[in-house]
Amino acid sequence: MLPKYKKVGKVLSVSMVAVLSLSLLAACGKKEEAKTPESTDTSAVVATYDGGTITANEFDMEQRVMKFLYPEYAQMMDMDDFKEYLVKQEVAYEYLSGKASEEAKTAGTKAATEQFDKMKASVQADQWTEMLKAQKLTDDNIKDYMTRIMTVIKDKETGVTDDAIKAEFEKNKDQFTTASVRHVLIGFTDSKTQKERKKEDALKIAKEVKAKLDGGADFAEVVKEYSDDTNSVADGGLFKDAPVANWVDSFKEATKTLPLNKISDPVESEYGYHIIKVESRTEADFTKLSAEQKESLKSQLAAAEIDTFMQNELDKIVKEVKLPKTEKAEEGTTEGTTGTGTEGEKTTEPKTDDSTGTDTKTDQGTTGTDKDATTDEGTSSK
Questions:
Q1: CB of 325 closer than 8 Å to CB of 346
Q2: b/e per residue, 114-125, with b = 16+ CB within 10 A?
Q3: How far apart are CA 336 and CA 349, in angstroms?
Q4: What pLDDT is attached to residue 138?
Q5: Which of 133, 201, 214, 216 is 20 to 30 A off residue 8, Cα-Cα?
């Protein structure tokens, strides 16, 4: 099922670079926890691969962490083929993290700590607590997951050369080119009346706007009178020092090629017609990239390497996947419906160690980073 979700996998791999972290308790009490009866994972095995297994508890934890970090994929997690994709993704990172060098683990630890702190600091404390509570998670659960991913990324980064980074830069210059641009949008929807506007009518108004600007009219005043981009009206239609890559293709191309301070012809996008003036443009130069920007390019290349492994090599190491299938409930039946599933569906879930499906993994029979044991309330047990 991996090819069907190749694009999703790339999104997850690349976006993980920006939010990953490690468990600050990863090295604390592992041996003692493994000997504690309460921390023994006796749930069913849902995936077997060369060197290890994934249990129902572990996969349940994986899904809850994914919902926390990527809520936009929550509904997809009720789909059988997407669940299979996710469990194979978990296998991939468990397998690769188990083979990572000590150097990569150290580098991953440092980078992950910094990223986790940034992520948590960007959210209000009470909101963060509620988000964790909603998925019955702790900071350590998130950190453990992120550590595993970041370890793999750092391991793959060790094979990235300076020449490869430069080549990646040349393919993605737009990420680093910025411009200050003013524009007037004549939308296909009138922002004042919210009524649809015919394309030919929008083009006619856009040409009228260009004529006024070519005649010396003040750009900010024309924006106030005509523009349907309500977000930029207060600034006279100005986007200041903005990354060119943020814009839709037609707007981006005009911004990259239009001579400075020249009024463009109408430029069509999915939103309507734009009249554009580029006031300044800073072209990207590899020699002027910061260390952080080069590190970002290196991470992109590492993520691409992981994606290649998942597409071409992963199925060779996966021996068996035994996930329960989602069954359609009879019409009008609500009994057996899962808490996160869609109405009218039920699943036969594999046995977990408690009613919440909370992860209580030991390090026996697995590779990669261990998950901390948790209680029903989602707090770490010692």
A1: no
A2: ebbeebeeeeee
A3: 10
A4: 93
A5: 133
pLDDT at 317 over 70: yes
What predicted TM-score, i.e. pTM, was given to this entire model? 0.60
Using one digit for the tens of pLDDT, what is the confidence trace for 85-139? 999 999 999 999 999 999 999 888 888 888 889 989 999 999 999 999 999 999 9
Cβ-based burial of 194 (10 A; exposed 0-12, middle 13-18, buried ≥19): exposed
CATH architecture label of 177-283: Roll (3.10)
Tokens of 54: 């994934």
3-class SS letters over the chain: CHHHHHHHHHHHHHHHHHHCCCCCCCCCCHHHHHHCHHHCCCCCEEEEECCEEEEHHHHHHHHHHHHHHCHHHCHHHHCHHHHHHHHHHHHHHHHHHHHCCHHHHHHHHHHHHHHHHHHHHCCCHHHHHHHHHHCCCCHHHHHHHHHHHHHHHHHHHCCCCHHHHHHHHHHCHHHCCEEEEEEEEEECECCCCCCECCHHHHHHHHHHHHHHHHCCCCHHHHHHHHCCCCCCHHHCCEEEEEEHHHCCHHHHHHHHHCCCCCECCCEECCCEEEEEEEEEEECCCHHHCCHHHHHHHHHHHHHHHHHHHHHHCHHHHEEEECCCCEEECCCCCCCCECCCCCCCEEECCCCCCCCCCCCCCCCCCCCCCCCCCECCCCCECC
Q: What is the pLDDT of residues 195-226, one digit of tens each?
A: 999 999 999 999 999 999 999 999 999 999 99
* Mean pLDDT along residues 187-191: 95
Neighbours of 231 (CB within 10 A): 10
> How is the chain split into domains, by residue range?
2-166+292-347, 177-283
Task: Count other C-beta atoms under 10 Å from residue 42's C-beta.
Answer: 12
Q: Pairing mode, if any, of strands 52-55 and 45-49?
A: antiparallel
Q: Counting Cβ atoms within 10 Å, is residue 257 exposed (0-12), middle (13-18) or buried (19+)?
A: exposed
Residue 358: exposure state from Cβ atoms within 10 A (0-12, 13-18, ≥19): buried
